[in-house]
Amino acid sequence: MRDEELKSFRTAASAGMAFTALGQGLKLLVHMAAIVLLSRLLGPSNFGVFAMISPVLALAAILRDGGINGAMLQRSSITHQELSTLFWLHASWGCAVAAILGLSAPLIAHFYDEPRLIPLIIASTAIVVTGSLSLQHMALLNRELRFRALAFIDAGSLALGFAVGTVIALLTRSYWALLGASYTTTVTIVIASWILCRWRPGWPNRSSKIADILRVGGNITLSGLFDFLIRSVDNVLIGRARGPFELGLYDRSYRIVLFPLIFVTAPMDRLVLPSLVRMRLDHDRYRKIYRLALQAPLLAILPAMVTIMAIPEPICLLLLGSEWIEAAPLLAWLSLAGALQLVTSSISSLLISQERARELTVLNALSFVLACVAYAIGLPFGAWGVAACYAVSEVVRSPLAIYWATRTGSVRARDVGEVVLPFCVAAICTIAAISLIGQRLPSAPWLLIALSVSTAYAITLAILVCTHLGRECLHEALNVTRLLGLSLWSPDGSGWLRRRQVSR
User: What is the 3-state secondary structure (H, E, C) of 414-450?
Assistant: First the structure.
């Protein structure tokens, strides 16, 4: 890569990281606001009913998408004709998946012994069909490093979906509010992506050379399918064996702890994968990009997860209310699982960038088997048993996954260990400090939470300052903050907010 190209790419990637951080921060705030408000409006049973169809919708989305984003990013070039053929192929396949989903509604309702699921599943097929119309546009925005547009779409669509869902919840007090929120988010993504991406599909062409894209996408889809099963089989088992109330508790706990992780890691993968692909021949830069991709989510989320592990009851009361207090132990166990997944979340980008998609599939298949064993052991003890055994399985899986991914290539297990060790020390110190704080503030939950979160981040920052890689992480975080400020409000008028102000 020439120096000019490298400088241009580095600028685009840095600005992309800044806007990605802003977009995901806004998205996380909207998500937490939705949890706080909708949990009080709907209650555990309504969330349990919708959680019964959530795995089905997630499966339909994986089958519909076909790994198109990762496959397109891995390819060095792609023509308009190939994109058009992919568009119509995925649109047709989306309709087929929706039809299969609609026809399976009675079977799913019978499995759960819950007749209310039939109209809910049939209505949700619209989400599957509509979502297939934005696949190419979102992939192209990602390929062109237009992270500002992607951040806008992500945060804006979720905010609008939350607003519509809240209105429906106030009017109906039913699970239909959750479906309304999901459909609104999907429609908004389609409209915004078509507006911001100028590409328009032509007619499909049988001579288009898309076999390699479909092959890579198939491997990514298969690995994503195993990842989906890991995240969904627990819901299915709890819903089947324990009913909607316990499933509602588990689903809310899962969304508080692990969905914020997805909000951070998914866009990080969107940013990191094209960066790794471009730098895979430059081993030093490749290793540095991966280390930063590993450090960023740990710095952003790990202190909060450690806080939840230490004081789950006050956090449960603050976010969900007293009706949900039984979810507290689930929060603690799932936080441990989430903390470990922060370490392994970037493995998929590492393997795909090295053209090891098949190895990613094998790794996710083994992870699925281990998770199923954990679910089977924990299910007789209820939702908390599933959460506890899942967390223990992550303790076993994480080092094995790191070894598998780093046994070849530029990044080695030692690189991962050097990054993770300071965060592990910070986590241990944080739990000890929060325990001392809790002994002195047992009757003031909001104050305890505020002090605990502040303490967690302060300890993490202090320990990172003591290591070379930690200082490198903090330096990069400051650069991202500076770039975000310049991108939004530059004194020379080039900032986005200033341009918007002038245009008015």
Answer: HHHHHHHHHHHHHHHHHHHHHHHHHHHCCCCHHHHHH
